[in-house]
Every structure is written in C-alpha cells, then in structure tokens.
Amino acid sequence: MKRAILIITILFIAVISTACINNFAVQELNNKAQTYLNNGDYESAIDRLEASIDLDSTIFETHYNLGVAYIKSEKYEEAIKALSKAIELNSDKPDSYYSLAVAQESYADEILELNEKPSSNSDDDISDNNQSKKQNSAINMTPEQRKAAAIELYTSSIASYKKYLEKAPDKKDFEDINNQIKSIEEELLELGKTA
Questions:
Q1: Terminal Cα distance for the chain, rounded
Q2: What angle do CA 164, 33, 135 make, to 5 degrees?
Q3: What is the DSSP string of 52-107?
Q4: Model pTM above 0.90
Q5: Less CB within 10 Å around the terminal CB: N or C of the chain?
Q6: What are the pLDDT digits (tens) for 16-29?
Q7: Distance between CA 89 and CA 102 in Å, rounded?
Q8: Number of Cβ within a 10 Å radius of residue 137
C-alpha cells in the first residue's frame, strides 16, 4: 500500500512539474514574441507564438497576438484563422472582433487586387509571385471565385465590426467604425452585392 502511494505521489509531482515547466516556457515565448512585435520583427514574433501554441493551444492571448502579427505581416488568411481561434477561446474581447474585421477587409482588398494584375509566370514576375504567396488559396481562384470570396470577406468584416461595436465598452471610435462599414457597403454595391 505504501509503495502504491509513493508511486502515485511521484507521478503526481512529475505531472505538476511538467505543467509548471510548460507554463513557464509558454510565458517566455509569449514575452519574447511581444518584444518582437513591439520592435516590428513580425516574423520572429510569429515563430515564437506558433511555438507557444504548440506547447499550449488554449491561451487566448497567444492566438490574438498571433493574429495581430499576421496582420502586420500582411498574411491575412492566417490572421483570420488565428483571430477566429482567439474568439473561440474568449468571445468577450472586443479587440478580437476589430482585428478580425481588419484582417477580413484587408484580405478581401488583396484578393481583388489579384484580379487587377495580369497573370504571368515570367521570371520578371518573381517578386510579384513572392508577394502573391501571402494570398495562399486566392492564387488558384478564378476571377469570379475571387470576387465571390471578396464579397464573403467584406460581408464578414461588416459583421465583425458590428460585433466589435456591440462589445466595445466605451465606443469612442463608433463614428469611425460606422464610416468604415459604410465604405465596405459601398464596395459591396460596386461588386454587385448589397450588405
């Protein structure tokens, strides 16, 4: 009996120790990522935040900061995924909805810009192709599919901006956000869709 209690105690201590070490590592990665974000080194911040998520994928702040870093890196599709996960983990944070709206709107803008560029695979377009890697799935879309995706993203961004206004405690930027919503609605009208 004493031996069983000793084994259980040792296992319990090992589990607690591992959890503490894991939490410390996550916190260190997040702190370092915040330093990188503050210094404008978004790729290094993304690396640290992704490593942090590998250790513990349940921390809202990690997903939110990853989404912000992706926005700063103009990787909007990835930002949308990270911010959606942040909202899934904690739906009470207004800034998550605002950042998600920015990512959705920016990605829609980027997709529509692809329709405006002539497609080419020449060596002269290598820098354009590297830039296009940011669009991920949009690269392989037809112009019609891009338009439909942009309409969906703009519509989603309006919903996210409205959710932000609903949850924002002081609504200091109410007029600015409403103007942004109107601007997106005008873009949707131009695309042949009403919001």
A1: 69
A2: 60
A3: HHHH-TT-HHHHHHHHHHHHHTT-HHHHHHHHHHHHHH-TT-HHHHHHHHHHHHHH
A4: no
A5: N
A6: 444 444 566 778 87
A7: 19
A8: 10
